[in-house]
Write a structure and sequence with these properties.
This protein is of the alpha+beta class. It has eight helices and ten strands. Strands 3-1-2-9 form a four-stranded antiparallel sheet. The longest helix has 19 residues.
Length: 242
């Protein structure tokens, strides 16, 4: 999910995520399997796998689950074949949505996603209909308690490709271009700075303010999409009430 602050979204959904930890592990395992299938099991030569493993670490995913997912991707264990699909559409109040999926049954997934949009009073659009409203960026989130030397942290980030470092209250959010993401991630890791989030994300160019019933409908749509096993990421440009 994307909104004004990645860290605020993480904090807001932490309780719900703890309750759905098994489902989260399943989604991360799918991403690990696909990454390993596409480019092998060596994180030095497979940046997508490395990013997926950072997400697994942040979610406290068991090591056995991670190793099993990698083995499935490498063909050492029996597994299913996944396709990557991106769906774009509009939710209540004209809010733009981009939904990234990994699925072993495209017909099932598009049917599920379309049903959720329809129930919310929205609709799925054509490819490219809303994606232009988002910038694809790399993002790192560090809880402030992990940063002992702020000056050094700022210098390291800005000298190695960070476009912006934002104070969100409880965390620092570092954004960069997607080309700078792998190198900046390596620099942070070598400096012993382990991010709570390190991923490629879609950041809305402009936010659409919603409140009342529209905000409730947007949140219900987001929750429904995130609860779907095939949905990996949900991005929208709604500015929801605090």
């Amino acid at each position: 999910m994307a909104g004004h602050s990645k860290w605020k979204n993480i904090q807001h959904r932490k309780g719900a995520q703890d309750a759905k930890r098994g489902k989260i592990f399943t989604k991360i395992a799918t991403e690990i399997t696909v990454a390993a299938r596409l480019a092998g099991g060596d994180t030095d030569t497979n940046p997508r796998l490395r990013t997926a493993l950072i997400k697994a670490r942040s979610a406290n995913m068991p090591k056995d689950n991670i190793e099993r997912a990698i083995k499935k991707g490498l063909g050492n264990l029996e597994g299913v074949s996944y396709s990557e699909k991106v769906y774009e559409g509009y939710g209540p109040g004209g809010v733009a949505f981009v939904v990234e999926c990994l699925t072993d049954n495209v017909n099932r997934t598009v049917g599920d996603v379309r049903t959720l949009f329809n129930r919310a009073g929205g609709n799925i659009g054509t490819d490219g209909s809303v994606a232009w409203q988002f910038q694809t960026k790399g993002i790192f989130v560090f809880e402030k308690s992990k940063i002992k030397n702020q000056d050094q942290f700022f210098e390291t980030a800005l000298e190695h490709g960070a476009g912006d470092v934002e104070d969100t209250g409880e965390a620092w959010e570092v954004t960069c271009g997607i080309d700078a993401f792998p190198g900046l991630r390596d620099v942070f890791e070598k400096a012993g700075l382990l991010a709570d989030v390190a991923e490629i994300t879609r950041i809305p160019e402009n936010l659409t303010r919603v409140d009342g019933k529209q905000a409730e409908a947007i949140q219900k749509l987001v929750d429904g999409l995130e609860d779907n096993d095939d949905v990996q990421n949900v991005y929208h440009n709604a500015e929801l009430p605090e």
